[in-house]
Amino acid sequence: MRRTQEHGAPLADPLHARQSALEAENAALRQRQVLLENAIARYAELVALAPTADVVNTAHTTETAETADLAESRLRSEISHELRQPLSALAIYASVLKSHVAPAGQPLLAQIKTCLTTLSALLAK
Questions:
Q1: What is the pLDDT at residue 11?
Q2: What is the pTM of this model?
Q3: I need a surface site. Which of 2, 21, 38, 82 has the fewest CB within 10 A?
């Protein structure tokens, strides 16, 4: 004989409903467990790749710095070349002017020559 509750409904129905609810909850927990295991595996992969990523970032940063340094050197070289020619021409003009400038203008001419020498020395670096 089946046991019944006080109201006459069989006990099997509530137990069956509870079992179904627990099975559904268990299935949901298994899905969460799979998601968590996947997340943990992905995290482990990222942690394993982190040193490699740092090396790649460092290499990229170094390459970028070297490229910038090379570009700066080329620019300085081009500017230096472009400025040396006019400075040489000015030095020649200053030498020619030496014999044509009055004694009062000689200190100014000497200052021009000093400026040209200083600029030439800066460009030589």
A1: 61
A2: 0.42
A3: 2
